Amino acid sequence: MSLFISFEGPDGSGKTTQILLLRAALEERGLHVLATREPGGTRIGNAVRTLVLSPEYAEMSQRTEALLYVAARAQIVYEVILPALAEGAVVLCDRYGDSTLAYQGYGHALPLDDLRAMNAFATGGLQPDMTLYLDINVAAGLSRIPASEHDRLEANTLAFHEAVRAGYHVLAQADPVRWLILDGAQPIATLHTQILARVLQALAAHA
Ligand code: TYD
């Protein structure tokens, strides 16, 4: 039975670690799981990832960046996510449309209505069944990322990251049915147990 789950959170919130653990736990239960990430997840998405995250393209305008994220999203939806859902997979996506609303909308102050329309166009309206938001204090999140991995976006100011986090809270509170807010500062195993319980619940409700 298919289920589409997105993971959202500020940089360093631990999404990637939790996705790996959740995937293993679901596969152990015999479920077909597809884990992917944005930007990336396809050849085209990975090319976009290099373009948007590399410090080499420092001249990139914020609107160009927004369009590229959304373009990568269109590709992953049609190439990876929809086919996997059609096969009955549980799809775990590290970031999805809400990242564009949080980072480009709340972070860079691009118009939210335009970004929503761009997301709708790119995804054909496909929304996650469930969005797991891993909340973490900005400084704590950034301190988890080794300096050698600081890409162009993580070089944004603290104020930017605070605006992103506040934006996530607005988005999550506006749709408490889809969003689940989790404390990303908890120990990895504790957080995993919480996530697994909620996902198993959602799968049972979906069955
Ligand atoms: P990544 O290294 O994947 O960070 P993380 O592991 O924390 O998810 O880098 C993704 C970066 O791209 C992250 O800083 C958020 C940013 N981003 C946007 O600004 N808009 C988007 O639509 C997406 C998908 C990502």
Task: Break the fold down into its secondary structure elements and pairings.
Blueprint: E1 3-8, H1 15-28, E2 33-37, H2 43-53, H3 62-86, E3 90-94, H4 97-107, H5 112-123, E4 130-135, H6 138-143, H7 158-174, E5 179-183, H8 188-206
Parallel strand pairs: 1-3, 1-4, 2-3, 4-5
The chain binds thymidine-5'-diphosphate.
Describe this structure as you would to a colleague.
It is a single chain. The chain is of the alpha/beta class. It has eight helices and five strands. It has a single domain, classed as P-loop containing nucleotide triphosphate hydrolases (Rossmann fold), CATH 3.40.50.300. Strands 2-3-1-4-5 form a five-stranded parallel sheet, with helices on both faces. Helix 1 crosses helix 8 and helix 2 packs antiparallel against helix 3. The longest helix has 25 residues. The chain is globular and about 45 Å long. The protein binds thymidine-5'-diphosphate. The site of thymidine-5'-diphosphate has 14 residues, from helix 1 and helix 4.
- Topology as a string of helices (H) and strands (E): EHEHHEHHEHHEH
> Roughly what percent helix?
55-70%
Query: Nearest-angstrom radius of gyration?
Result: 16 Å
Going by CATH, the homologous superfamily would be P-loop containing nucleotide triphosphate hydrolases
Classified by CATH, the class is Alpha Beta
Beta percentage is: 5-15%
Q: Please give the count of helices.
A: 8
Q: Distance between termini?
A: 7 Å
Low-pLDDT residue intervals, each spanning 5 or more residues: none
Count all strands and give the number.
Answer: 5
How many structural domains in the coordinates? 1
Shape: globular
Give, in spatial order, the strands making up the sheet with the most strands: 2-3-1-4-5
